[in-house]
Automatic annotation (TrEMBL):
It holds the Pfam family Mrr_cat. Residues 1-31 are annotated as: Disordered. It comes from Streptomyces gilvosporeus. InterPro entries: Restrct_endonuc-II-like, Restrct_endonuc_IV_Mrr, tRNA_endonuc-like_dom_sf, Type_IV_Methyl-Rstrct_Enzyme. Signal peptide: none annotated. The lineage of its organism: Bacteria, Bacillati, Actinomycetota, Actinomycetes, Kitasatosporales. Residues 1-29 have a biased composition (Basic residues). One of its GO terms (molecular function) is restriction endodeoxyribonuclease activity. Keywords: Endonuclease, Hydrolase, Membrane, Nuclease, Transmembrane, Transmembrane helix. The chain crosses the membrane at residues 59-75. This is Restriction endonuclease. One of its GO terms (biological process) is DNA restriction-modification system. Residues 102-216 form the Restriction endonuclease type IV Mrr domain.
Amino acid sequence: MAAPARRRRSTRTRRPTRRPRRRTVRQRRREAATSRLVGAVVVLATVIAAARAYPVTTGVLAALILVAALAVLLVRTGRLRLPALPTAARADFTHNIAAYQHMTGAQFEHAIADLARRDPSVRTATVAGGANDRALDVLLHLTDGRRIAVQCKRYAPSNRVGAPVIYAVNGTYRAYHRCDQALIITTSSFTPAAQRANAELDHPLRLIDGRALGRWVSGGRPPWVA
C-alpha cells in the first residue's frame, strides 16, 4: 500500500486580530453632549405636553421655580441673607449656655460684652462691673446714640433672680448711669415676684433669662432690637 501523502504546511502568516479602537476623549464628549441634548429635548417635550394638559398647574410650578432660582442667585451674590434655621443643637438652649454657667461672674460679664459686640449697631461695650458698680456690669453705646446698662447674673438654674435686683437696677440706670434702657441677663430665670415688680414699673426693664440668652447666642436678635 502506498503511504498517505503528507499535508503541506501553509506558508501564510495569520494576521493579528484587530482590537476595537478606543473612543477618543473628543468622541466621549460628543456622545455625552448628544445624550444631554436628547434628555433636554425629552424634558422640554414633557413640559410642553404637561402645559397643554394642565396650564394652571404648570404656570404655578414655573413661577415657583423662577422664584427659587432668583433666591439662590441673590443668596450666592450676598444680596439676600436667609434667617438661621433652627436645628436640634440650637433648640437645646441649655446646651448653648452651658459654657456660661461654668464661668465666674467676671468672666460672664466679659462674655456678654463680647456677645454684644457681634451686633453692628453696638459702637462700644465696656465692662464696668466690680465693687460699688451700682447695678451696672456692662455699658453699651449704640450707633443710634442710646446708652444701655446691662446687669449680668451668672446663676445656677435653681437660683433665680429676685425682685431686689429689679429695684436696684431700676433705681440707678437712669439717674446715676444716664442710660436710656436697662437689661438684666441671667443664665437662670426670674422669680414671679421679680416679674411682677418689673411689670409695675413705669418703664419696665428687659429681662433676659437662660432661654432668651440661648436664642441670642444661637444667632437670634439682640435684646435691644425691637
